[in-house]
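Intended use. Records like the one below are meant for learning the mapping from a protein sequence to its folded structure. Do not use them to infer anything beyond what is encoded.
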Amino acid sequence: MGDGGLNRAELDAYLRRVGDRFPLDRALVGGAVVDDEHGALPQRERGPEYVVVLVSEAFDGMPWLERVYQCGALWDASEMGAPADVHCYTEAEFERKRVALRRVREVADSGIDLLAESPDS
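Structure written out for the chain above:
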């Protein structure tokens, strides 16, 4: 991370690692580090440094904990400077969780769309 910002090269590498196993329809990142990049005030309750929301139809039929374990294990916390709170959903699950879970809604509304920024897209 170094400069305190997002390590975009490592985020791209993470997307490739996950994408090799699960074709991704969406990949969003939010959390305190992204809020920092967006100019949030430092004197706030930070919450998780990274919140990652991955959407893939390949998750259909796979137990939720298995998805999260596999995708979470691919996150390099030492390179990124902190662990990630990883959420893995199908599109339909994502739409439901976006309504039900504040953290997912915040990432969907103000996080960074990693697929739109990825050099591979």
